[in-house]
Predict the 3D structure of the following.
Amino acid sequence: MSRDAFTYIVGGKAGEGVKKAGSTAANLFAAMGRHVFQMDDYPSLIRGGHNFVAVSTATREITSHYMKADLVVALDKRSYDAHREDVAKGGVVVYNSDAQEETEGVGIPMTAVAKEYPRPELRVGVSGAAALSAAIGLDKDEMADLITKEYKRDLENNIPFATAIYEAVAEKIGGRFPLEKGDRERPMFTGNTAIALGAVAAGLDVYLAYPMTPATTILHYLAKNERELGIVTMQPESEIAAANMAIGAAAAGARAMVGTSGGGLALMEEALSLAGMAEVPLLVVLSSRPGPSTGVPTYTEQADLKMALGQGHGEFPQIVASPGTVGEAFDLAAELMSLAWTFQVQTILLTEKHLSESRMTVEFDVDGAAWAEPRMHDGGPYKRYADTADGVSPLLFPPSSETVKFTSYEHDELGITTEEAADITLMHDKRNRKFATVEEHVRGLRTVNRFGSSGPLIFAYGSTTMSVLEALRVGGIEATVVQPVYLDPFPVWELEEYRDMSPIVIEQSAAGQFARLLAEKARIDAATVIKRYDGRAFEPEELAEEIRRAA
Amino acid sequence: MTDDLGTYAENTWCPGCGNFAILNAVKSAVGSLEAKGVGRERIVMTAGIGCHAKIFDYLGLSGFYSLHGRSMATAQGLKLGNPDLKVLGFCGDGDAFGEGLAHMMYAAKRNSDITIVVHDNGVYALTTGQRGPTSARGYKGPSTPRGNTEDPFNPLVLMLEAGATFVARGYVGMVKELADLMVAAVEHEGFSFIQVLQPSVTFSNRYAEYNETVVPLEQPAASFDEALALARKTETLPAGILYRIEKPSNERALYGDWNPVANHPTRDERLAKVKAAVGRG
């Protein structure tokens, strides 16, 4: 293992400012021009429990957090107990000596110091930034600048509090982990923000969503920024309403998107089938968490692949793709919005909590974003479902002097209900032609990413790709990683060269859904399927060991 | 599609069905709206699934033939996408108060600027006569051969309580009045609800009863409580506008004079906004 990343873990109760302590550290590293990956681990509750944030940083690209930390800041005893084994060789734990007995590590009376200021329970979390600043050798002014920039409020209390913690930590481990500066400062975004911005870049007008972790922060980001972005957001009464409203909005000509997790998608399925019949463009974000059912709401899993590929009753074309990184999430959200409108199909951006809510340094290719532009009717009598050579009937939106009829029933070319055998066949054939039309177009897109060109062959998709690449880096393993970005149409044309090879497949599914898909669609049978399904993303060093064993 | 708002679709409603009266009322209402400057191209309709919904095929208006119980969500989506549209939604009683009850309550609660006309025949007619949310206790249908064991919803009370800003009752035996209600409902800015008493000649023929009990209401109630009292009447059934108040519509409250479709940006405009957002972090 060649550990060249620095990892900081801060843990405490929910409500203590743990997330803030984590994002503050991440922002500090990014401001130093370093690459950063931040993973928030939190239970489904508002106060108490155990939250932690793992932030890893390097001067080269980094695509995962590590669970072996150089510096652990434990705001409470539970965090100390949870992470004492996570300390890397040469690492150190800074713990709250008011929350437990003296033990191994650097004990700091965080609570006692906090009690010298108003609202001590909210102040303790500031210890994270103070301890980190001391440990990496920032001076007091630099630390005060960091607190000012990140906490903004109540600085007359926060800065003296942080200074006291800083001094106590500096006495023991001041400058223990000097971090060199990186090449340039990059912004940091979560996968969900990337998805939101990608869709906006493609022309999003309306976003509708019912809260469901881990998709919820798309709604939060877009609602907060809707005026600046020139879009409209609404939280309706259910996912069913969200999907049906989005379809209605799209029928009025608005670029619409919905976002949810597996349970919400289950509720939307009826509407997605409607979009298939009515041929209404719609971008659907499906961000997975461990299932089945309510499952484990705030953790990660890749068990909704089959659902995404198989959703909706009846037969109609759709497109499913899954981004491997936060940067790709931006590109893909725009591309899927564009494809939805080009072909009047629903497109599903399949992702997971690990990408949705993790935050990393990234530079978006904004100018390269796809733009959603429908094929419009160019005058004359209008037929909503005109029988065209490629199956795509031009769009026209009311108000219009022509009659525009969208419908859930089988219909004739004008959108009038039919039960005639010839009409049914005609419309099935029209929709079926879109499968081929879509595939032909998708063949021209980057449907598969490849990393490396020698060593064992590894298949992964979605956020697991990031874990695999980081595992190879830390393990110093030469391998060829193939990541299908598109899952429907499945890019078999790109994968023929791997047929009859026996790759390692790595995925976060107990059943190995991705390995099954590869076998079924591309006749690629895995020699080994490395699975993780405990709700946690793969840890790079552990995964490197597993890859080594499998290779 | 023809100038008289008809289509070439074959009408398959039962002879004598109350839906014919609703269809005629809509045509008359669209004519009146056109005379008032609301062109038919701006009027879009939605329909759920059931006998009522066949009106979608018979009317030469644009719109969306939606799903059972979801058409009021589709209607709200159309309005949200382009608030310049006048959305006229048709629902059955099963649509509105069975499968789609939550959507109805919320459409009223948020005062979405749409009109929902419920063809209330108190029965699931198209699926051969099962009890619906407004069927009387004791109603015998194929799913309740020993009689309905539930009391019916009162749609007017539900909509009043949920916050509808225009609540009316019409009757297919009073077509001219029904057309007037539709015009007033479409002109009302906010959620407009019309319960139309529409007997099913095959499964629940209540024409004789309604001809006795339905009485015209001269003017809306002066207060919410009075409207509730009118809505709860059972010996006579007041027909007309029971309640009407002014309140900001959902769309106006959400985004004022913005129009997502009309204000759809150029790519350059949008990319500039995205770059600014990326800069803000």
Notes: The mean pLDDT of chain A is 97. Chain A touches chain B through 61 residues (CB under 8 Å). Residues 375-445 of chain A form one domain.
